[in-house]
Amino acid sequence: MKQKRALNAAIAAESPESVITPSWEWPWWRTTVRHAPVFFWIVAIHVTAAVGLILFPLPGWRILLGAVALAWIGGLGTTICYHRALAHRALKLNRWASAILTFFAVFNGSGVPISWVVRHRLHHAKADTVEDISSPVYHGFWWAHLRWLWQTDAPPVERYCRDLDLRTLRVWDFLEGPIVALSLFSGLYFGACAFFWLGAIRLVFALHAQCFVNSICHTEPGIVPGEDSSRNVRWLALMHFFQGENWHRNHHSRPGLARLGWTWRQPDVGYLMIRLLERIGAASEVRDLKPV
Questions:
Q1: Distance CA 16, CA 273 (A)
Q2: What is the pLDDT of residues 7-58, one digit of tens each?
Q3: 143 burial class (0-12, 13-18, 19+ CB within 10 angstroms)?
Q4: Which residue(s) pair with 284 in the sheet?
Q5: Are 142 and 216 within 8 A, CB to CB?
Q6: Residues contacting 156, CB < 8 A, separation 6+
Q7: DSSP per residue, the chain
């Protein structure tokens, strides 16, 4: 708390607009103007998921397998396409692989590619400083885990990802609404239980799996503000279906690598899928330097 007060005092001393309360000091329910829909979406899927767990706590194995499969391929869309290919240019995907992976990333609730990438690049550019858009070091666990999603505006695209300001990526801004509606409601075709498990329950699970990378993976003990707070979190591999995002210390050490798990003890299914895509001609220029 003392650290927060000192930080706010420093901001007040430097900025003529210091009368404006920093967004991490807002009540949890307050949103930016543009991100009110994000807040209501997150509330809606949590409420719907809670109702679903009460009514259908144990789905049949087919429905459970379907939910896991959708979350798995959606996770691949985020880690391979959004994170490794677009944000860090650790590989190149052909247009069909990029489109398919992007569709499933949006379907899994990861948002549109440019919005995801611009925030992630800012995170790396300002990591573990007060300007880090999702830092738990300065702003607390719940800020880093969820609140920043509706309490911060997107950084300027022209500054952080001008290279991705393309029509082929902008089109997803218009497709996001229909895709997430399909994601939430398509399970109705298979019945009420499938509606909840293939929709809101899966979406809530996928949301928190991703958000733990911003929150719990930046809680290295004993560091001082400004030092690298990233850490590898072994148990988080389960929530990510061993796709590699939990090896976050590795990633911050060498963000340009396509491989996040560096040894056989650090499973990285995302990297294996990249090599498979490379084998069939859907990926190229995979950056796989040996870690130092």
A1: 50
A2: 544 444 443 333 467 788 899 999 998 999 999 999 999 999 999 999 999 9
A3: buried
A4: 92
A5: no
A6: 118
A7: -HHHHHHHHHHHHH-TTTTSPPGGGS-TT---STTHHHHHHHHHHHHHHHHHHHH-SS--HHHHHHHHHHHHHHHHIIIIIIIIIIIS-SSEE-HHHHHHHHHHHHHTT---HHHHHHHHHHHHHTTTSTT-TT-HHHH-HHIIIIIHHHHSPPPPHHHH-GGG--HHHHHHHHHHHHHHHHHHHGGGGG-HHHHIIIIIIHHHHHHHHHHHHHTGGG--TTPPTTS----B-TTHHHHTTT-STTBHHHHHHSTT-S----STTS--HHHHHHHHHHHTTSEE----PPP-
Write down the pTM of the prediction: 0.90
Altogether, the residues listed in the chain come to a count of 292
Each domain of the chain, given as residue ranges in start order, spans 37-283
Dist CA 132 CA 110 (whole Å): 19
